[in-house]
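re the bet — no i am not wrong, look at it urself. input seq straight from the record:
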Amino acid sequence: MTQHTTVELPQLTYNRSDYTALRAYVLKIPLQRIADLYYSEDSPQVEQGLERWLLDMRANLIERAIAHNPGAAEALQHARQGGAITTKALEILIQAADLPEPVPSRVQRISQWFKPKTVEAFKDEGILTLGDLVDLINRRGASWWRSVPRIGAGRAGAIMRFLQKWPDELGEIAVERNHLVPADTFDLLPVLDPTRKREIAPFGTFQLPRWLAGYDGANRAPAFCFISARNDLEAIQCFLARYAGQTHTLRAYTKELERFILWCALVACKPMSSLLVDDCEAYKNFLVAPLPEFCGPRTVKTSKRWKPFAETRMSAASQKQALLVLRAAFDWLVKVRYLSGSPWAAVKDPTVVEQVEKMDIERALPKDLWDKVTGVLAERAAIPENQQDRVALAAILLMGDSGLRRAEAASARRSMLKKSRHGTTVWMLEVLGKRSKMRKVPVSPRTIAALRAHWRDRDADFDAQGIDLPLLAPIVVPGTDRALSKHVDLGTKGYNPNSFYDLIAGALRRVSKHGGALVPEHAASLTPEHLAQLAATSPHAFRHTFGTLAVEKDMPIVVAQEILGHASASTTAIYVKAREKRIAEAAENYYAAAEAETLDRSVNKGME
């Protein structure tokens, strides 16, 4: 089906007869009389319906007048709602007719510039203004249009041409920032071999043989498809493109869909778009204990040792999370008419025992261990050649002193970090967190000092005006072609969440192995229990460390909630509720007091 690629509303032009006819219509002169006085019988205005023409003309002139002079909105409000036009309002409209074409702005609604079908296509995406649309394109990149129903390549090109005419008014379009693999490059990737299960590759680095790709899947919808996907991989790409810019969500969804598509090809040997309920049940069972070929050590995706699963057995909660992601993906693919229906509708979720504390805050480091980790790293960072310790110290302090998530710390930028306006030594950092919500978090003076030291290693001036670089950037880059191409200008590209994890893990290993020897005062205090906890510590533990230490130091719950970005205060309250340590200590005091009381009674009774 050919797609119409004209998206802009035409700029209507009017002649003197039209203006006079509108004035007469406002004065309630009968329509037939207006037609006889100002138009011929075969004029387009009469043939299209004179009243509709005049009403549309009035609406267009009102929008044009408001676009040029927002102050006129109040005077035209009654006319805009279909009421009578005052003499003052009519004069404004007549003057607006002679004004030049209005210039678009980010706050204007897209309905002022695009045709209704194009406007309707963006409704489900929450795109209402031109600024929203520009931000969507910059967030999703070159393939932004693939996941928007009824927006194909032709219409997307027309939209881009319109937006790029107004860079000063609407902002620059930076489509090169798309980090997903464009669907039209799939044909250039190597073909996955279903007979060689050990040669598993991550999503975006392979294509499927045609008989597994889903070009003719049994569940493909016969009706017109609203997305441009030709096969299952491209359909998944369209779904994931919706979450570009939402780092945490995109990473979680990619992981589950990556596992699923590999299972479809290598285990079920069926296209995703041909799966039945029985196949979905089989994958549900597969998640309980994935095949050994699918499991391996945690590593980066560029490594040949990469596997989709890091553990040989998955918890019920992880299994349920995987199924929720697959349901969401299939439901969306049905909604956009790529699939006829979702077989997951007939599959039950695993039973999950609800935890007393949904967050594993026991991973938080106690204050003495937190002080030792930061102390050892600070001592190591003072040695000139220890660049990795300096960036690791800054990263750990951002999470442990400011409560940032790993992805938030990795994506933090210098332009969003400013001194507090209230004259304190604290700085404030604006970060984009979960649910696409911006929040401001405090940054400690020692974190600023660590960042300055890291920036000196990058030969960059932390205190220069107008700098917009990542707060943290790799100093040492792996020698792979992919890594080298990404970091041509060293220090200008930040960490991705996986490499950020490796940075923290490496620093903790150095603290455990060399910290005591380098810093004698810490040698005796790094107990076997401390070393065991450090071995199991992930970057997220430092966020829990901040939450735990903050409430222990009597920071108000509402303040801690705002800093941590929790949607509910009840989530933050977990840091002060019934932690195992608190329960054990309170119980110990209770039992000791009860035992002492019993002993006193026995002594008194004996004395009697």
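see?? The first helix runs from residue 16 to 26. told u. also Strands lie at 417-419, 427-432, 438-443. so pay up
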